[in-house]
Amino acid sequence: MFEFSSIEQYHAALKEGKTTCLQAVEHYLDRIRSASHLNAFIEVYASEALQKARSLDQRRNAGHPARKLHGVVVGLKDVICYKDHKLSASSNILKNFTSLYSATAVERLLAEEAIIIGNCNCDEFAMGSTNENSAYGRVLNALDETRVPGGSSGGSAVAVQAGLCMISLGSDTGGSVRQPADFCGIIGLKPAYGRISRYGLIAYGSSFDQIGIFGTTVYDVALALEVMAGPDEFDSTVSSTKVEKYTDLIGKKSKYRVAYFNEALDHSSLDPEISSSITGLIEKLNKDGHEVSPVEFDLLDYVVPAYYIITTAEASSNLSRYDGVRYGYRTQRKGINLTDFYKQSRSEGLGKEVKRRIMLGTFVLSAGYYDAYFTKAQKVRSLLTKKIQLIFREFDFIIMPTSPATAFKAGEKTTDPIAMYLADIYTVIANLAGIPSISVPLFSHSNGMPFGLQVMSNRFNEVHLLRFSNQMMQEQKAQPGKLK
Ligand code: GLN
Q1: pLDDT score of 48 more than 90
Q2: I need a surface site. Which of 94, 258, 382, 421 has the fewest CB within 10 A?
C-alpha cells in the first residue's frame, strides 16, 4: 500500500526502492475514483500521468539524478494554463477551451519532474468562498460532506485534504487559498504579490491575484514555492527579490515578535471559540519566548468594501475578453447585431455571481461614481498598506484568524452575497497590501471541524513565515487533514 506523508519521505522511499512513481500515481488514481462524489477534480489525466510515472521510474533506475519534484503528484486549479489541456475557470463560457501554452508556474513544476494528475474544480473565475459558484457543481468537504470546502480553490483544497494528490495549486485574490485550507484542515500559502509569475493564470483582479500552494507539510509547500518563484520574462510584476532556498532555511527555530489586533479577535462576526483558541495560542507563544503584543488597527471595517470595489473593477475589465468571439462559448441566436451578440453570449455563458461582479465593477468605474467608490477604495488600500508597513518595522508577523467561522453548511450563504463577502474580512488584508500570508491548520472546533491560524509577514519574507509556521505545527503536533 502506498502511503504519503511528505515529499521528503516519498523521495527517500523511491531512493531505497520501497516504492515507485507508478505506484504513487496508481494509488492516487484509485483514490480519485473512490472519492469522485467529492467533485474535487474536473478532469483526470490518468493515462498521461501513468506514462509520465513510468518514464520517471525508468530515468531514476537508469541512474539519472532525481529533480526536486521528481514524481510529485500535483493537482491544478482550473484557472491555471496547462498546454493542450482543457481550461475553463469552471465557467460555461470557457467550456471546451484548450490551453495554448502552460503557465510559467506549471512549466517550472514540470521541469522539476512533477506529475500533473488533473485539474480541480473551483468557483467560476475564482469568484466565491464556497465553491458553490461552479459550472461543474459544488465540491464536498471530505471531513463533513454537508459542508463546503471553502473557495474559490475548493477542489484543489479537497484534493489535498482527501489524499487525492500530494500538493495542489490554487489562486488567491482575496483568500481563495487560505480560506479553503482553513476549512479543510490543511496548509494554504499565498506568497507575496509578485513572487510567482501570473503568466498563464486566468486574471480576476490583476493587482491582487497570486498563485498559491496547498499541502500537508510546510516543507512540501516551501519546496513547491522554491521551484515556482522568481522572475519571469512574461510577467513584469514578478519581483527580482532573491528567491531563497526555503527548504534549507525553514527547519531552524527562532524567537519572533508577533503582532495581533484586538479589533480582529473581538470582532462581532468571529466565532467565540476561534477567538479563544487564538488567545490561548498567544499566551502560549509568549510563554515560549516570543514577544506577542496587540497593535491598534482601525481599518478592519473598510477592508472588505475596498477589496470588493477594486477587484470587481479589475474583473469587469479582465473579463471583457469573454465576448463569444475570441474564446469558448458563443450564442446560437442568429440574425442579431454585434452588440446583441456580445450581450447574448455573455448572458448565456457567464454565471450569476460573475455577472453581479462585472456589473458592480462597471458601476464603480463609471464616470459619475468613479471618485466616490474606486478612488476612495484605492485610498483605503494605500492607507492600509502604509499601516501594515509600519507594523512590520517592529514586528515579524501579524497573526489573526483565517476566517470568522469554520466551514459553512452547503447553501448556508448562497442567498446572501453580502454575508458571504463579509466572511473575507481577515484574508483580503494580505491581498490589498501585497504581503505573503499562510493558513496553518492548528486548531479543531467543538463542532468537529478544523480551523487555522493566519500568519502574515512583510513582503518577500516567506522564509520566516514558513519557518514560524513549521515551528508552530511541530509544537502543536498538527495533523493536517485529520481532526485531532
Ligand atoms: N472570496 C473572495 C472572492 O470571492 C476570494 C476570491 C479569490 O481569492 N479568488 O472574491
Answers
A1: yes
A2: 382
At 286 the three-state DSSP class reads helix
For the CA of 208, the nearest atom of ligand 1:
8
- To test the pocket of ligand 1, the residue of 176, 178, 204, 214 to mutate (highest count of ligand atoms within 8 Å of its CB) is 176
Q: Could you tell me where the DSSP H helices lie in 365-416?
A: 370, 376-394
176 is catalytic: yes
Whether residue 480 has its Cβ less than 6 Å from ligand 1? no
**pLDDT for 330:** 94
Work out the percent of the chain whose per-residue pLDDT is above 90.
96
As a whole number, mean pLDDT of residues 52-74 equals 97
Per-domain residue ranges for the chain? 7-249
Query: Tell me, what amino acid is at 41?
Result: F
Q: Which of 91, 102, 152, 437 is catalytic?
A: 152
pLDDT in tens, 449-483: 999 999 999 999 999 999 999 999 998 877 776 54
Among the listed residues 90, 156, 176, 469, the single catalytic one is 176
Domain 7-249 listed as CATH 3.90.1300.10: yes
Q: What is the pTM of this model?
A: 0.97
What residues contact residue 450 under an 8 Å CB cut-off, 6+ apart? Answer: 143, 182, 183, 184, 185, 406, 441, 443, 444, 483
Q: Is the Cβ atom of 152 under 6 angstroms away from ligand 1?
A: yes
Q: What is the pLDDT of residues 3-33, one digit of tens each?
A: 999 999 999 999 999 999 999 999 999 999 9
| Distant-in-sequence, close-in-space partners of 333: CB < 8 Å, separation ≥ 6 | 340, 341, 344
Confirm if 103 and 115 have CB atoms less than 8 A apart.
no
Taking only the tens place, the pLDDT of each residue in 99-139 is 999 999 999 999 999 999 999 999 999 999 999 999 999 99
Residue to mutate, 424, 425, 454, ligand 1, most ligand atoms under 8 Å from C-beta? 424
For ligand 1, atom 2, name the residue with the nearest CA: 174
152 is catalytic: yes
Peptide bond into 152 cis (omega under 30): yes
Cα separation of 56 and 70, whole Å? 7
